[in-house]
Write a structure and sequence with these properties.
The protein is α+β, with helices and mostly antiparallel strands. It has one domain. The chain is built from two helices and ten strands. The strands form three sheets. A five-stranded antiparallel sheet has the order 1-3-7-4-6. A hairpin with a 2-residue loop joins β8 and β9. The radius of gyration is 40 Å and the shape is elongated.
Length: 199
């Protein structure tokens, strides 16, 4: 089973940016036993920017950031065969396409907005669409895997006449001779058609 989740975390009053949490998780289920081929390649335009900053779980207006994006890009092409925990940071969720930095503890933040509370409904609409599309692609990959049914044992073997490896046409037996104590006993046909026994 695939679980996709976005969270906009609470922020304090003032000039602070809300932190964004997002992850994709593969959970133990019968779906994973099918080894589905999960393909999801999409790009979504954001209504504003998402900022990335290492370590700090709080971002104030005026703080420096590592990177910023205005689109969400996904390029997933993998066979899912075992459960996987949720990604440790937002960059893993985005397949590391959002930022080229190697920070182990990266956090994402939405832009600051006025209001009490600030309105982020346009961001939420994009996140909901990503979730729907990703789950739809997952269900399609599971359906395709399921539609490849199981097979029973099929035994294919080759065989033939011993010594030849194949069956041939029967041949007429030639007259045989046999050894006798005094020599070779054979069958002779005389010119006049008579059959005789000679040595």
């Amino acid at each position: 089973m695939l679980k996709v989740q976005f969270k906009i975390m609470p922020k304090p009053r003032g000039n602070f940016m809300p932190r964004l949490v997002a992850f994709r998780q593969y959970i133990e289920s019968d779906e994973l036993k099918l080894n589905p081929h999960f393909v999801f390649k999409r790009e979504y335009q954001l209504p504003g920017k998402i900022y990335f900053r290492c370590c700090d779980k709080e971002l104030r207006c005026g703080d420096s950031v590592c990177a910023e994006i205005n689109t969400l890009s996904f390029e997933i092409d993998t066979y899912v065969r075992c459960p996987e925990p949720d990604q440790p940071n937002i960059k893993a969720f985005l397949n590391y396409r959002a930022c080229s930095c190697t920070c182990p503890d990266c956090h994402a933040f939405l832009e600051w907005r006025p209001g009490d509370p600030p309105d982020y409904s346009d961001y939420i609409a994009v996140f909901e669409q990503v979730t729907k599309d990703m789950l739809k692609a997952w269900h399609e990959s599971v359906r395709q895997a399921y539609n490849s049914g199981e097979t029973k044992e099929i035994d294919i073997s080759l065989g033939g006449v011993s010594g030849t490896g194949h069956r041939g046409t029967a041949k007429k037996a030639k007259p045989r001779t046999r050894l006798t104590p005094s020599g070779i006993l054979g069958i002779k046909v005389t010119p006049d058609g008579n059959v005789g026994i000679g040595y």
